[in-house]
Amino acid sequence: MVIWDGLSQAFSLIITRDPAMMQIIWMSLLVSGVSVLLASAAGIPLGTWLGLAPAHRVRWLAQILYTLMGLPPVLVGLFVYLLLSSAGPFGVLNLLFSPTAMILAQTILALPIVTGLTMIAVRSKDREIRDTAVSLGASAWQVALTIIREARLAITGAVVTGLGRLMAEVGAVMMVGGNIEGKTRVMTSAIVLETRRGNFEMAIGLGIVLLALAFIINSVLYRIQGVGRH
Amino acid sequence: MFRLESVCKSYGSRNVVEIPGCVFTRGLIHGIMGPSGSGKSTLLRLLNMIEKPTAGQIIFRGHDLVTCRPRLSLQRRMAMVFQKPVLFEASVYENVAYGLKVRGLQRADVREKVLEALKTVGLVHLERQPARTLSGGEAQRVAIARAFVTEPEVLLLDEPTSNLDPQNVGMIEDLVRMINRERQTTVILVTHNVFQARRLADHITFMYEGKVVEDGPTEAVFTSPGDDRTRAFIHGDMVY
Ligand SMILES: Nc1ncnc2c1ncn2[C@@H]1O[C@H](COP(=O)(O)OP(=O)(O)OP(=O)(O)O)[C@@H](O)[C@H]1O
Ligand SMILES: [Mg+2]
User: Fold this and answer.
1) pLDDT for the residue numbered B240
2) DSSP state string for A37-87
3) Quick check: A187 pLDDT over 80?
4) Is there a cis peptide before residue B70, judged by omega within 30 degrees of 0?
C-alpha cells in the first residue's frame, strides 16, 4: 500500500535527516514564520484598535476584514506576481521567485486573519476590562496594553491560526516562489511536485512531516501561552 | 468633593439619572440607597468618569469632569470598586499593584504598598495566587484593596459587601471607617443594607427612579424621613 510506503519513507527521511528535506523544512518555517511575525506586528495593534473602537463606527472595516480573512491564496499570489514581475511596478527589484516574494505574499495573507481574530478577541474582553483599567487610572495606551494582555490567549490563538494557514498554503508560495529546488521550495510545493511526478511515497512522507511539524509548533505555542501553568 | 448641577444621564429616551443639584461633602462617608434600578451604580460611574452625563455638570474639587483635560490626572485622584468587580487574569499581587504601576511608582514602593494593602484585607498569604481561583469574598476584598491602595481622595464603593459573610462585612466596614478617619478619604458607598448605611454613613442620599428624593445627615434621614418612599424603604427593610 502506498500509504505504508509513505510512512516508511517519512521515517527514513526523518532518521537520515535528508539534506534536501531539511532545506525544504527550513524554508517552510522561515517563510511562514517571518510572515506571521510581520503580520502580527501590524495585525495585533490594528486588531486591538478596531476591537476598541465603537462597533458601529468600524462596521464597514470589519466586514471588509472578514471578507479578506477568506482571501484565496492564488489571488494574493497573482497580485504579488503582478507587482514583482519584470513588467510590474516593482520589477526592477528583481524579487520574483525569491523567498522575499513568498514572505510578501504570505504576510498579506496572514494580516487579515491575525487582525480579524485579534479584533474579535479584544471585543470579547472589552467593556468590563476597559472600565476597570480606566477607573484604576490607566492611560489610553495602558488600557490597550491591558486589554491585549487580558486577551493574550485568544491573540496567541490568532497567531497560531495564521501560522497554520500559511504553512498549509501552496497557491501563493508557488506562484511567486516558483518552487525552485534549494531556493524557494517549501513543503507544500514539494508535495505538489512529487505528486505530479508520481512519487507518492515521497509526497506522503512530506505530508506526514508537515503534520508532525504543525503538531510540534502548536504544542510549543500552547506551552508559551501558559495554559495549565497554574 | 462633588457638586452636581442639573445632571442627566439617559440611555435612549429613558432618563436613568436626573439630579438638579446635589453635593457630596469632603471627608464624609456618604451612603447612597435606593431600590434596584434607581440609578445608584450609574451615578457612581458618572462620578468616576466612566460614563459622561448626557447633560449638566459634575464638579470635582473645582474641576468640571466633562470638559477638564487631561482626564487622567483627575481620574487618578479617585478610585472605584464596581458592583461586579472584574479582576485581571493575573496574580492577586499584580491585581493590587495595577493602579500603582500605571502611575509609574518604583518597584519597591509598589511592593511595600501592595503588601500593606493585602495585610489590611487579610490576604497576604494569597499574594501569588491567580486571581481567577479566588472565592467570591476573597475576590471582593482584592478589588477593594486594588482601589484603596492608590490612596485616592475619594473612594467610590458600589455594594462592596454584597457577597461577603458577616465576618468579612465587619472587616470591610472597619476598613472603610479606618480609610475615612486616618486618610481623610471621602467615601461614597452604595448599599442595599439599611443597617450598614446607618452604621457607616454620615450622610444619606436616597434615590428613586433616577432622582434624589431624600438627602441629609444619617440620623435625620432615619429618624424623620421626609419622603414617603424613603420611609417605606427604611421600614420595609427593617421589618425584613
Ligand atoms: N448601559 C446601559 N444601557 C441601557 N440601560 C442602562 C445601562 N446602564 C444602566 N441602565 C439602566 O439604568 C437603570 C439604572 O441602573 P443602575 O445600574 O444605575 O441601577 P442601580 O440603582 O445600581 O440598581 P441595583 O441596585 O440593582 O444595582 C437600570 O434600569 C438599567 O437597566
Ligand atoms: Mg447597582
Assistant:
1) 43
2) HHHHHHHHHHHHHHHHS-GGGGHHHHHHHHHHHT--HHHHHHHHHHHHSTT
3) yes
4) yes
B150 and A128 within 8 Å at the Cβ level: the answer is no
SS (H, E, C) B83-112: CCCCCCCCEHHHHHHHHHHHCCCCHHHHHH
CA-nearest residue for atom 8, ligand 1, is: B42
Binding site membership of B16 for ligand 1 (Cβ less than 6 Å): yes
Q: Which domain holds residue A190?
A: 2-123+153-229
The CA angle A110-A114-A120, to the nearest 5 degrees, is 145
Asked if residue A140 is part of any domain, the answer here is no
C-alpha cell at B198: 446607618
Q: Is B36 in the pocket of ligand 1 (CB under 6 A)?
A: yes
Any CB–CB contact under 8 A between A133 and chain B?
Answer: yes
pLDDT at A27: 93
pLDDT confidence tier of residue B99, bands split at 50, 70 and 90: very high
**pLDDT for B237:** 56
Query: What is the DSSP secondary structure assignment for residue B18, as one 8-state letter?
Result: E
CA-closest residue to ligand 1 atom 16: B39
Task: Give residue limits of the domains in chain B.
Answer: 2-234
Percent helix, strand, coil in chain B, to 5, is: 40, 25, 30
Q: How many domains does chain A have?
A: 1
CB contact under 8 A, A139 and B72: yes
Looking at A151-199, list the stretches that DSSP marks H as alpha helix, in order from N- to C-terminal side. Answer: 152-168, 171-177, 187-197
> Please, what is the Cα angle at B146 between B11 and A223, to 5 degrees?
95
pLDDT score, position B8: 92
pLDDT digits (tens, 9 = 90+) for B67-77: 887 889 999 99
* Nearest by Cα to B184 from B30, B28, B57, B79: B28
CA–CA gap between residue A209 and residue A14 (Å, rounded): 8
Which fold is adopted by the domain B2-234?
A: Rossmann fold (3.40.50)
**pLDDT at residue A229 in the model:** 46
Per-residue pLDDT tens digits for B166-205: 888 998 999 999 999 988 999 999 998 888 999 999 999 9
Cα distance between the two ends of chain B: 34
DSSP reduced 3-state for A229: coil
